[in-house]
Design a protein that fits this description.
- There is one protein chain.
- By secondary structure, this protein is α/β, with parallel strands linked by helices.
- The protein has seven helices and seven strands; from the N terminus they run E-E-E-E-H-H-E-H-H-H-E-H-E-H.
- A seven-stranded mixed beta sheet has the order 1-2-3-5-4-6-7, with helices on both faces.
- The protein binds guanosine-5'-triphosphate and zinc ion (ZN).
- The site of guanosine-5'-triphosphate (GTP) has 22 residues, from helix 2, helix 3 and helix 4.
- The site of zinc ion has 4 residues, from loops.
Length: 212
């Protein structure tokens, strides 16, 4: 019963609650969506009126407890999340969808196992494979359904990840523009960023000074 879609449901998700959410970047409207089957609670943070032209700025962000809550410097997730909210707030309009798919979909326990393997010299892709997973197990369908719930056929998407871009487009989201979202490399995350660029095709400019 719990997993049946509510009247306001859309595809794989049902809208379950909402409130105003003041943040360091200003006040957003926070919406929670329950995903059928998994029960995962995804979030949309919305600022301003999303209708009309131009298509709103949008970030589809995947959960990273270590980077976003604990301040881990192994990845760029915390600064990307902060940057995305700041850019939406600067325009006064946009949507951030926060998907609860920790560790590119393998969950926290396995992500930490993958980190331990990276400490032994494997890169982020090799570590996932050693654990028996594909490099990326994420599912963007809930994000597509959340955008549909808001009646948003078009977005300007902040990402460097071509797989995310093509997955959203394949599911019918019209990404009218891709906007890079670049975190400054640090001594701790430089190898990780390099692997994302070289093995996962991420569209980074700055790692080698912006020439590629
Ligand atoms: N399995 C695994 N997951 C990781 C690792 N480092 C970060 N993650 C997860 O990766 C997800 C973020 O994905 P990224 O590949 O960093 O970036 P992205 O969101 O695909 O791409 P952008 O839109 O350009 O930011 C989060 O769910 C993190 O928890 C790792 O070494 N192994
Ligand atoms: Zn992270």
């Amino acid at each position: 019963m719990k997993q049946q879609q509510a009247a306001s449901g859309r595809g794989t998700v049902s809208h379950s609650s909402e409130c105003d959410m003041p943040t360091a970047h200003g006040c957003f409207r926070m919406h929670v969506f329950a995903e059928a089957g998994s029960g995962r609670e995804h979030v949309a943070l919305v600022m301003g009126d999303l209708g009309g032209e131009p298509a709103p700025l949008c970030r589809v962000h995947s959960e990273c407890l270590t980077g976003e809550v604990l301040g881990s410097l192994r990845c760029d997730c915390g600064s990307q999340l902060d940057d995305a909210l700041a850019r939406i707030a600067a325009l006064g309009r946009g949507i951030l969808i926060y998907l609860r798919q920790e560790g590119r979909g393998i969950g926290l326990t396995e992500k930490i196992r993958a980190y331990a393997l990276q400490d032994q010299g494997l890169d982020t892709v090799e570590a996932n494979e050693r654990l028996g997973f594909d490099a990326d197990l994420r599912n963007y369908r809930p994000a597509v359904d959340i955008l549909a719930w808001f009646g948003l056929p078009q977005v300007r998407l902040m990402t460097n990840n071509p797989s995310k871009l093509s997955a959203l487009r394949a599911e019918g989201v019209e990404v009218v523009n891709r906007e890079p979202i670049i975190a400054d490399p640090t001594a701790h995350n430089e190898a990780y960023l390099r692997t994302k660029r070289d093995r996962m095709g991420h569209l980074f400019d700055p790692l080698d000074g912006g020439e590629d």
